[in-house]
Amino acid sequence: VADARNFSVQTVAVLAALCAEPVEWRHGYEIAKQTGLKSGTLYPILVRLADRELVEATWEAEQPVGRPRRHLYRLTATGLAEAEAASAALAAGEVTTRGRQPRGVRHRLGLEGAR
Amino acid sequence: MTRALALLWRLASRALPARRREWGEAFGAEIEHVRPGRARVTWVIGGLRLVVAETHLATKLAYVGIVVASAAGILGYGWHSGSGNPAMPIHRVALIVTMTMLAVVPWLSRRIRAFGPIAEGRAPRLVRGFAFAAMWAVLPVAIYVGNYSERRFGTCADCTVPERAQWHS
User: Fold this and answer.
1) Between vectors from CA A54 to CA A11 and to CA B24, what angle results, nearest 5°?
2) Closest CB from B26, B49, B54 relative to A71
3) What is the rounded distance in angstroms from the CA atom of residue A109 to the CA atom of residue A20?
4) Do residues A8 and A102 lie in contact, with contact meaning Cβ atoms separated by under 8 Å?
5) pLDDT, tens digit, for every residue of A29-44?
6) How many CB atoms lie within 10 A of CB A63?
7) Which H or E element spans position A71?
8) What is the value of ipTM here, to two decimals?
9) Are A28 and B30 in contact (CB under 8 A)?
10) What is the pLDDT of residues B93-107, one digit of tens each?
């Protein structure tokens, strides 16, 4: 299991969002709203997580009327383990995440005041 | 507005490498679900950041900028101010052709894999970058030597009148 220090705080936010309901497939806009991340931050993170096989993706099974099928995401078993480890480590204050830590994301992760 | 944004995204996502095309489609499929107005525009602009990141556009532009700036600097240094020497236009053309070849040949050879497969990683990139820089560094030296030899042993076309009188004496 990777160290949470390997993740940016935004990545941890995405992992935490997916970890909240690990069996549910989630679409990008929903994750963006939940994490407060902009699409330009969220999608590169999803791409990297999928490359590392921490996130799996699939298309909506049925074609909705009047709009294109959406891409859905959820954690893999490895991803779930990493997400739980990262969230636990952050909550325990054992690690700090690398990279910039936007206030909104820190707030959602309950990191306000933490270094 | 939505159509324009979707069109913009379709055009931009074409730049994505083949292995990322599905992500481009995935991103595009979300556009219609985003709240219309500013949020939707922001969403698409974010997607452009994805394209920039995945195509390494910023790095490529930086490389192009460095090459153009180097070429401009060397051209400025090597450009002859002009004289009655009939070989001067040829000198200028040769300089432009050399600069163009130095800029284009490495790019082209990489594109058509003229020298075989291209290794990725820091060390091979460093070697390539050093070789490229060394190749460019030779040019100003060659120009300097050319100018010096022309003044010292050439027709003395750029010499001052007293120097020319001395040359032809």
Assistant:
1) 75
2) B26
3) 12
4) no
5) 999 999 999 998 999 9
6) 10
7) strand A71-75
8) 0.74
9) yes
10) 888 898 888 888 888
